[in-house]
Write a structure and sequence with these properties.
Length: 342
């Protein structure tokens, strides 16, 4: 396999779960420092990949390094998915026990055993990543300054090659999503009324579970197209949530023209010309922002557009903290829930 192809595949893996590592650091697993080390190692390796791509090296040593990197990063991704699964499993188990009025929560799965097991796994992966970094030095790869600086801070970088999503999907290649699609469509155009001036539907699930695909299927569904017409807008938000940029992208989607206005009021006025009094659908895909002030600015801007009350926003996210920040009603939150093993 040619090096650029392998590099691209490895970048996709890193771009998808560096933010997941950052999210797990916030949880009280008992070894936050090791998780932070893991996040920094992943960002450092991403910067090494950037240098590898620039050099276009196709040597045997480069191919071997990329092969080892892919194996380690896949292991790291599996560990982070275990964290996400365990966090969701515990929430669901506690919720079920409270629903059944069972007070004794000491019978829950042993959290100490889980911490010990995962602590060892994280340390092992960090050791392997350290070896990968040393091997990179042997083949003369140097980290890009931009990502290396990000690795030494708590800032989430907007990846150089972050996962840009779009509303287009070949539904003939998607199976087993009909029930989820119907549920979300009912939230969009059903009789349910949240009573809010801005109705936000959240699609929540772990990475790789198909949140974006579900959003795409809903976006292109015939009922949805008929209901909202041309007033459908898709925006890939990703890590760096900037209100001005998101509003400019809304204008570009509606007008098919480039929009780089600096004044938010001016952007909202342009959106009013297209959407005032109309029902529109806005999809915000891959939302990570948990800063309330940023969302409040976006929310007020959307309210300022003056769209019809039937307008809807769909937000896909991995985090319930995002759902809370956006003030989404539980009735408008759709979960991808893994089956809890008995």
């Amino acid at each position: 396999m040619a090096a650029p192809v392998v590099i691209s595949a490895a970048q996709v893996i890193l771009n998808n779960f560096i933010p997941l590592a950052s999210e797990q650091i916030k949880l009280e697993w008992g070894f936050k420092e090791d998780l932070e080390t893991l996040r920094r190692r992943l960002i450092l390796i991403q910067s090494l990949l950037s240098d590898a791509e620039n050099q276009r090296i196709t040597s045997a040593s480069m191919r071997e390094w990329l092969k080892n990197l892919k194996l380690v990063t896949c292991d790291a991704e599996n560990v982070l998915d275990e964290f996400a699964y365990e966090a969701l499993r515990r929430k669901l188990e506690v919720k079920n026990r409270m629903r059944n009025k069972v007070r004794n929560l000491f019978s829950l799965s042993n959290p100490l055993a889980f911490r010990l097991k995962m602590a060892h796994k994280v340390k092992d992966i960090n050791s392997m990543l350290d070896l990968i970094c040393k091997e990179a030095n042997d083949i003369d790869l140097k980290p890009a300054d931009q990502l290396l600086n990000a690795a030494s801070t708590n800032v989430k970088p907007r990846d150089l090659n972050f996962r840009l999503t779009h509303p287009f999907v070949d539904d003939s290649q998607v199976v087993g999503r009909d029930g989820d699609v119907s549920t979300v469509i009912d939230m969009l155009i059903g009789s349910y009324d949240s009573g809010d001036d801005l109705s936000i539907i959240a699609i929540v699930g772990m990475g790789g579970m198909g949140k974006t695909t579900l959003g795409q299927l809903v976006y292109k569904n015939k009922k949805v197209v008929k209901y909202f017409g041309d007033q459908r807008i898709w925006i890939c938000v990703s890590n760096d949530f900037v209100v001005k940029r998101s509003l400019n992208e809304m204008v570009q989607s509606l007008t098919r023209n480039q929009c780089e206005m600096e004044n938010i009021e001016g952007i909202v006025r342009m959106l009013q010309e297209k959407l005032y009094g109309k029902e529109y659908l806005l999809v915000l895909d891959d939302v990570w922002n948990e800063i309330a002030d940023k969302w409040e600015c976006m929310r007020n801007s959307l309210l300022g557009i003056g769209g019809s009350k039937g307008s809807k926003i769909i937000a896909t996210t991995r985090s319930m903290h995002v759902v809370s920040t956006m003030r989404t009603s539980p009735s408008l939150t759709h979960h991808f829930e893994p089956t809890i093993r008995k």
